[in-house]
Design a protein that fits this description.
The chain is of the alpha/beta class. The protein contains nine helices and six strands; from the N terminus they run E-H-E-H-H-E-H-E-H-E-H-E-H-H-H. It has a six-stranded parallel sheet with strand order 3-2-1-4-5-6. The protein is globular, with a radius of gyration of 20 Å. The termini are far apart.
């Protein structure tokens, strides 16, 4: 019997979750890449009924993945969705959140919230015993607004989760064109020997976005476009363009070469 899997998404009614995470999870479900018995729990401050939350996700899927509108898969995906109102600041709702989780489940916490809430959420997960030995946590960039706040967040993460259970992600690296950079540079016989300062005069990185600020005014007011795009997304592209060949395509080996560039 396989171990049940529970994915808890904090900030489940926010822009990132509805525009990126739930459509991505639906794509995985379409390709039979989700665990068969996975439960996906949305957690946010909004007091919503489960059906209302499902309708929000359904509208997001209609907008983002209309080409894969399979009724049977949509019904299966929506049946996986649960919702709990949780306040990351005062801790309300964390105890009831635990009632939804099988004690034997593999739990993944995905923090699709402002980085300012990362520390508070970790504290409540630790206080309520939701962060168990086999649970994992995913945090999105930007991790803090300066060096001091970044260190403070990482300290909070380390108090609750061991380093090998913390995943710091930049969703921009999931773009197909970005992933193809590694193959273009290191697996293409035509380009690999020419990718150097003798053959390339200069590199220009252009990010042509089709989505504006829209409903993310509070995020941009707090963090700004520089922190949203330049210090992470664009520096990641810079590193992938400029780094030396890694010893392997393992995550640590690629990371080490990126750090040398920076």
């Amino acid at each position: 019997m396989s171990q049940p899997v529970v994915l808890i998404i904090f900030g489940a009614t926010g822009d990132l979750a509805l525009r990126m995470l739930f459509p991505s999870l639906y794509h995985l479900d379409c390709d039979d890449l989700l665990a068969p018995d996975i439960s996906i729990i949305g957690a946010s401050r909004s007091k919503l009924e489960r059906d209302t939350f499902r309708m929000k996700v359904a509208r997001a899927l209609d907008a983002r993945v209309p080409e894969r509108a399979d009724p049977a898969i949509r019904a299966r995906f929506e049946s996986r969705l649960l919702y709990r109102a949780v306040d990351a600041l005062d801790g309300n709702g964390f105890d009831s959140l635990g009632s939804e989780i099988d004690t034997n489940a593999q739990v993944i916490f995905y923090l699709s919230t402002s980085p300012d809430l990362y520390g508070a959420i970790c504290g409540h997960l630790k206080r309520t015993g939701l962060a168990k030995e086999n649970s994992r946590i995913v945090v999105e960039k930007p991790i803090g607004h300066d060096l001091a706040s970044s260190r403070a967040i990482n300290d909070c993460l380390a108090e609750t989760f061991s380093e090998n259970r913390i995943f710091r992600v930049d969703h921009y690296l999931g773009k197909e064109a970005v992933q193809n950079l590694l193959a273009l540079r290191f697996a293409n016989r035509l380009f690999e020997p020419l990718w150097n300062h003798h053959s390339i005069e200069y590199v220009e990185i252009t990010v042509a976005e089709t989505v504006g600020v829209e409903g993310r005014w509070s995020y941009y007011n707090d963090h700004g476009a520089m922190r949203d795009m330049v210090q992470n997304h664009l520096l990641q592209l810079l590193c992938m363009v400029a780094m030396e060949p890694p010893t392997s395509l393992a995550s640590d080996a690629v990371r080490n070469e990126k750090v040398k560039v920076l």
